[in-house]
Amino acid sequence: MEPEVRQHLTTLGTNLQSHPVIKEYRELKVRVDQCLLIKQYEQKIEEAQKEMVHAKHYDKPEAYKYWQKQADLYTKKLDEYPLVVAYRQALIEANDLLQLITTTITEQINERTD
Q1: What is the pLDDT of residues 73-110, one digit of tens each?
Q2: Helix, strand or coil for residue 114?
Q3: Cα–Cα distance for residue pair 44/46, rounded to 1 Å
Q4: Taking CA 107 as the corner, what is the angle to CA 10 and CA 23, rounded to the nearest 5 degrees?
Q5: What CATH fold (topology level) applies to the domain 26-113?
Q6: What is the pLDDT of residues 28-48, one digit of tens each?
Q7: Do the Cβ atoms of 42 and 78 come closer than 8 Å?
């Protein structure tokens, strides 16, 4: 890779790390990773899913329905938890920003090579 291109990529990476959208996403990611309630919801969903597999394997439709309701309940709680909602929104915004940058770079490269 050419030194000039490498320098531009380094600058772009540094600028991205300090961009407010990326900073907010990273901060929320840390908070989500450290949230015990979110971890508990995830564990309960996983446990219910495992029990659903067992119930299906042993042909126990009532047990399957029960564990499916449990999985749905904790999935709903997780999906509605404010920190998760904020994190998912920040993730969408960060992805949109990166997609915009990628598209812009691609268009500029294509213009220069035409």
Answers
A1: 999 999 999 999 999 999 999 999 999 999 998 998 88
A2: coil
A3: 5
A4: 40
A5: YheA-like fold (1.20.1500)
A6: 999 999 999 999 999 999 999
A7: yes
Q: How far apart are CA 58 and CA 83, in angstroms?
A: 38
CB 11 within 8 A of CB 77: no
Residue with tokens 């904020």: 86
**Two tokens, residue 78:** 């997780």
Q: Which amino acid is at 74?
A: Y
Q: How far is it, in rounded angstroms, from Cα 31 to Cα 50?
A: 27
> What is the rounded distance in angstroms from the CA atom of residue 30 to the CA atom of residue 17?
15
- For residues 66 and 73, give the distance between their C-alpha atoms in angstroms, rounded to a whole number: 11
Looking at residue 1, the DSSP 8-state letter turns out to be -
In the chain, the N- to C-terminal Cα span, in Å, equals 21
List the chain domain ranges.
Answer: 26-113
Q: DSSP labels for 63-87?
A: HHHHHHHHHHHHHHHHHH-HHHHHH
